[in-house]
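Report of the visiting student (M.T.), summer placement. My assignment was to run the structure pipeline on a short list of targets and document each run. The first record concerns Alpha-1,4 glucan phosphorylase.
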Amino acid sequence: MANLTPLDQETFKRRVQHYLNSTALPEAAKVSSKAFLKATCMAVNDVIHQSLQDTQKQRQQQQRSINYLSLEYLMGRMLSNNLHNLGLFEQAELALKEWGVDLTDLFEEGHDLALGNGGLGRLAACYLDSMATLDLDAMGYGIHYQHGLFEQQFHQGRQIETPDEWREYGSPWEVCRPEAVQEVFLYGHLEWKIDANGERCRVWHPGQIIRGVPWDIPIVGYNNQVVNTLRLWESRASSHFDWDAFNAGEYQNAHYAQNQAETITKVLYPNDETDAGKELRFIQQYFFCACSVKDILQRFRNVHGNAWNKLPEHFVIQLNDTHPTLAILELMRLLMDEHQVEWHEAWTICQRSFAYTNHTLLPEALEKWSVRLFELVLPRHLEILYSINEWFLNTLVQSQWPGDMTKRRDLSLIEEGAEKMVRMAHLCVVASYRVNGVAAIHSELVKRDLFPEFHQLWPEKLTNVTNGITPRRWLKVCNPKLSQLISQHVSEDWARNLDALKQLNEFADDAIFQQQFMNVKFENKQALAKVIKQLTGIEVSAEAMFDVQIKRLHEYKRQHLNLLHILTLYKRILDNPEYDIHPRVFIFGAKAAPGYYLAKEIIYAINCVADTINNDTRINNKLKVVFLPNYRVSLAEKIIPAADLSEQISTAGKEASGTGNMKLSLNGALTIGTLDGANIEIAEEVGRDNIFIFGHTVDEIKALEKDGYDPNVYYSNNEELKFILDWLLTDEFTPGRSGELRAIRDSLLDGGDPYRVLADYQSYIETQYRVDQAYRNQSNWAKMAIINTACMGKFNSDRSIIDYQNKIWSLVPSRHAFEPTLKAS
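After the run finished, the structure tokens were exported:
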């Protein structure tokens, strides 16, 4: 990697020393590792902020920029990634070594910026990295959560949520931007008034005003001196402190307004099981949207004045899922109410400015908010929503399906029922000029099953952009030993052009390279075994197969199907102590939403089964089960390089894409999976001989449902499965507490098995047997693993962003841009 900065080892060391002198305690006998971390980050920031200023200067004449709105950003730890992208890793490592400080150990002192829940937030982080690497003028917008999601701990096997103190002592990467503070209105009432031109206008008198304070986090491009920005909004009261209340002795009430305002950005996804929780989550989404849209308009106005009709020529607003949908209504409100733009012109501007990424086919994940909540919190936005719905139904729907009241009801932005609900996904589709799915099959299902009428109305609107991951963090940073091996055999900078990894196919049959590849895997497994021991006290052998399922805990991802396989193997070994199986370590990492009862019961069941199996000497260490607590980006960076087998076992048609499947495959893990999401495209790239596919297809699942799915048929006709499910009713895994694990069994039998776990059980068990047999042939397994790594070029997030450029955004890179060698899909 070229050194793009003037910092050599000595210069870097002097800068670190400078910041140590100004931040570390002078009387301390020894400088702490936290002090070294802070000083190192500040030294790196010197380079970053100079590049940020240079980038912004070069973009003053930029034709178009992207504004990426996402409620989640799983950024992880940033020091290592920034050093790699800046070309400063070696200088920093050598400089710190002179103080006896190990840079790798220093990384562990940093906190994850865990401002997300799962794939949605990690995808957003990858896309920001790629936009900077491709030198696209881009600004990410999100929320500056005080606690992020939550820190997960286990108490007697059950998930316990505690606050995630990611910035307890501040974050070295963020900068507060008070000059860009925004005001957000809530509640209140509406009235008609006559403006200065004698025209009737609508006026919103808010009942509460919240301040949005922006915190900027730099996003460093790879090897190109480009720095973009992620802007996160923190909520604060417009008036912090009530002196009168304080002086009257009402000390708690003096802080009431501040506490109420700060609650909005306290945590990601406040529990919405209660009406108060729903209201808070709704306000959280609006606060984020309102701040972001106001900021976008302010940035536009600074350059282009009040030429609002030109907004779509210069700014694209990408909605990452439905969480930012309220940005559509807020832009309409601001254009009409504050900038006196006529309704039809404002609506045209909106329809040319927004693009929407759909991430799910699950009905419960397609957000709906009650009309009652709109009336209470956002009365003006509800009026605008009604006007949009009237225009849509009376023009487009009436024209396409004249007099068809069923179509009007199905397509309306308002869902009629016991309580009227606003369909946020419908609003996104109607208001956006382009809508994309995130994998080939997902995008087809969006057209065919989710939005067929919208596709009929706008045949060109719905498109596909298959997800991708950044190879910088998910190979170069997290797997340095494999990265070094690859660089010895690939002739170009694969971290920029991941298609270059195809050169590794030439070595797939090379016995020496196979051994080198598997040696790296073994060393990574040894490192993970130490982490497992440290976090759980469980000892595992790196000689065993590491079978990994790391993702958000949800029924459709089917961690409980994995559990049924574990129980099947356990039963077989107990029945026959000589049962031939290669030793296997099952590794889980997942958080369950605090209010998701069954997901938490699945975690509890896995932990109970793990405790029993791990302490059963009868099975002679053939099986181990590990559930690592507090799964997050920095933990994934340790698990993924060590994985042998990647579990991607969602019900076909339920996983939009997945990105964990890509990360694991890139690092040489073989996939066992259904034909779901990006698994299909991974199978196409690596070849069906190098992936383990099982289970019903999307169409076969639909056929099961059409014929009337009965899980009891599978239960009654499979003695092994019947025993496994009935086992959960006993106290085998919860001594003295029979039936404690029955929730899983009940959901599969009495609950109708909504994600067809039992339908895929036998195919899964048989395919897992093939996995076991394949792993015994280490030479062929190495070949398959090498091919997986070699064929992941398509799943580079750089390619995804180029697809967004070509299909949706029409952005033009500026002077830093390199000629992309990646091909758009």
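The longest strand covers residues 208-220. The first helix runs from residue 9 to 23. I thank the supervising group for their guidance throughout the placement.
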